[in-house]
């Protein structure tokens, strides 16, 4: 190995020559000897050649798409244990989260004053650590989430943003499908989301994934979360997951009875079919069932052939299939196995009352489309209200059918009644070959850019997603 001078030696690695020149000029003036490299390969040669390098200053993104943290790992594997300062322009929370999970001794962002880099060098040379003011502020933004995601969570999110399916990710990472479902659940919970689509949107808002990747991920997630119909040998085919669930053992959206969109708060004041907010007077939504009508969220979301089950079909499922409860992460679940050995799993995701989830991981509550009109007297008044029937599931209890209050938020497990040969094809999937135009926020604005205001839009056609400018 070669030594240089008595001046403290720094190795700066950045793929922008102008940045290297600027840093070399500044750091030389304050008494450092600066070695520089624009690639990981050149930097490794210098690191192995010079024995007196005291600090590595490394960018997050290097030539040939090399990740700065991967290069840090390569240095450690080569036995080079000098302290590392990451000096980067990347302020996206995706990168901030990765840096928090790394073992580097310092982080300075290129938006910081250069004196912060000098302070970081002094601190790490003396055995300490230093994280800049701007970096610390971005770390506070991460606290908006419900816990820092692990590096494996982030890797799963990154691969999802590249359009990989859960099965492909499991294969690439050498993990089982249950492990991928666990990481997906972590992503949802730590981003404070109700489902993966909302988690993706939140990750985009926090800068954890770029716009186009976020939209690609939303499209891929939508395709992956399309329910598949399972032939149990019954009068209808049951979906393999709850409505809008990204995977069979994850939670879907919660719905009040007869409402077709989810919400954050479930009580009489927010129930859209109340008359003047009254619990005992409801608008007319049918005689005995809303299945397959405008009040059926499964039909509205998935299109022709899909709908909520009626109570007779729920009874058929319970009476024909055997069932067994399982403990799992993130939710325990009950498996219904048909005589033909086909099965569906329904997770115990609880239900929504007011603004919280009740009995999570111990109960599952799934609406049927059936209801009765309940009449009675209350304080000298005759009242009527819809009393829907739901499919009750709980650990260590047999499944049951019971009446419930319409304003509560339950899950929906769709059934498919369409022709054999097109089962599992929803309206969303059937229209996938037509172009769809979205804003950068993911709001669909039509199937053509004609007449749109000037701006940037996302166009999805089939599996292709591209960004275009309208002038």
Give a summary of the structure in a few sentences:
By secondary structure, this protein is an alpha+beta fold. It contains 14 helices and 24 strands.
Structure, described:
- Mean pLDDT is 78; it is low at 419-433.
- It is elongated and about 90 Å long.
- The protein has 14 helices and 24 strands.
- Helices cover 30% and strands 25% of the residues.
- Helix 4 packs across helix 6, helix 7 crosses helix 9 and helix 10 (196-205) runs antiparallel to helix 11.
- Strand 3, helix 3 and strand 4 form a beta-alpha-beta unit.
- It is of the alpha+beta class and 471 residues long.
- The strands form 7 sheets. Strands 2-1-3-4-5-6 form a 6-stranded parallel sheet, sandwiched between helices. Strands 7-8-20-11 form a 4-stranded antiparallel sheet.
- The chain folds into 4 domains: 9-142, Response regulator (Rossmann fold), CATH 3.40.50; 151-224, Winged helix-like DNA-binding domain superfamily/Winged helix DNA-binding domain (Arc Repressor Mutant, subunit A, Orthogonal Bundle); 234-428, no CATH class; 431-470, no CATH class.
